Amino acid sequence: MVELSDAARSAIEDGHPASLTTLNPDGSPQTTVVWVGMDGDQLVVASLDDRSKMRNVRRDSRVSLSMLTGGTTHGLDNYLVVEGTAEVIEGGADIWLQHLAHHYLGPDAVFPPPDQRRPGYRMVITPTKVRGNGPW
Amino acid sequence: MVELSDAARSAIEDGHPASLTTLNPDGSPQTTVVWVGMDGDQLVVASLDDRSKMRNVRRDSRVSLSMLTGGTTHGLDNYLVVEGTAEVIEGGADIWLQHLAHHYLGPDAVFPPPDQRRPGYRMVITPTKVRGNGPW
Prior knowledge:
2 copies of one chain form a homodimer. By secondary structure, chain A is α+β, with helices and mostly antiparallel strands. Chain A has 3 helices and 7 strands.
């Protein structure tokens, strides 16, 4: 595990959509765009359903996550990459998605819609490496 | 190979920074943010130096690329994911980076700086699958 800098932590909590890559059964990369937040020193991604990314992580825990964070360094877009190992935990997805919706959709956002709330799955990512263009 | 829709092709040529994931020697995902364009039915990424992403692709050609494309569908950010197989070709990077700089930095951009121009490497990606949130 590596500890994230304050700048990296702040970027992750600032509502930037993130590209998350997991590994398919054949080892090929599977990428999707997700909301992400911090829980202590770990990153959290949530899903109401048992999607490919969750199934992939149960088989191979290695993931990478990247996001554009706004602004530029040396004239090029700032971005953050976090590599890590992930674990899937049942439950809490609806609570996390509502928490993240405040960052991603706005302070008054209600998400998921009340009739779609269910425990779902959380992916908890322990960072092993941080890279990118910016003050990380 | 799959043929890209006009909407996907247009998004790729619209100057959105892309997350590109290749596979490290140990099979873990390696993600970086790149400029990308279209050359016929293939995607092109260029680098002046022989970076990890280029070395990775020579060993394992499987890649995924994703980008936020602006706007929303069903209230969530539009994004495009292209999975494919990639090949590294020597030369032409400086010409491609200058071409892409017009899309990513502006019509008058000069990039790479004249004193840093060298042939470098192009990664040419043949799409095998297109996914995402949006009109793809």
